[in-house]
TrEMBL record:
Residues of the YCII-related domain: 1-89
UniProt cross-references to SUPFAM superfamilies, sorted A to Z: Dimeric alpha+beta barrel
Protein name per UniProt: YCII-related domain-containing protein
UniProt xrefs under Pfam families: YCII
Source taxon at top rank: Bacteria
Family stated for the protein in its record: Belongs to the YciI family.
InterPro entries: Dimeric_a/b-barrel, YCII
Length: 107
């Protein structure tokens, strides 16, 4: 089962301990084959909408900074419970904030 874990952008600047803890966590997940991809996201982005044959592209940002998605991890686990446990471990490392986890369907 694949899950997309998304982290809302935080206001606090990460310190050396956070970087070290996250590096160890990412290394562990990579070595175990659970982590498929990870990265940070441009807070501005752009939106595409379509109506009939017309496609419109609008530059962002669209949300307040505290609502923007700051990063993601794509994981492959055996169950929803395993995804939740990895999410809990992540939240303990990064501290206060909000994450969203969605199951990814398809190949």
């Amino acid at each position: 089962m694949r899950y997309l874990m998304m982290q809302k952008a935080g206001g606090a600047e990460p310190d050396a301990k956070l970087y070290a803890d996250m590096a160890a966590f990412v290394e562990e997940l990579t070595a175990s084959g659970v982590l498929l991809a990870t990265g940070g996201l441009d807070p501005a982005g752009f939106r595409m909408t379509s109506a009939g044959d017309e496609i419109t592209v609008t530059d962002g940002p669209f949300t307040e900074a505290k609502e923007a998605i700051g990063g993601f991890a794509l994981i492959e686990v055996r169950s929803k419970e395993e995804a939740i446990e990895l999410g809990r471990r992540f939240r303990k490392i990064v501290g206060d904030g909000e994450s969203m986890i969605h199951q990814v369907y398809g190949p």
